[in-house]
Known about the structure:
Elements: H1 24-42, H2 46-72, H3 78-93, H4 100-109
Helix pairs in contact: 1-2, 2-3
Amino acid sequence: MAVISTQTQRLTRLPGTRTAAFSPLTLTAATLTLTGLLIATLEIRWSLQLISLTCVYSGALLATLGLLIHLLRRNLAWAADGSLLLGLGALLFSSPLLPAAAQDYLEYLMP
């Protein structure tokens, strides 16, 4: 009598399980957004404001893309992406309470 053994692959990570809360996409989006806001607060030159706007817009787009991807994959990083987008939204809607220089910059961020 012979014993036939089949090798089965073990899944180390199941598709529906929860994984880490931060991904490279989330960290890149947060870094770009915070860098853009930091450049905007320094108010060095108008050319750097264009770079600042580019950083903030690209960070927001990456956060939106990351939110969609992490929701589809059921990853906990959706909370970090969502909080980044909520923070940007809160910053835009609280612009009347901020100083005049910040209000001018935030007007360019409004779509």
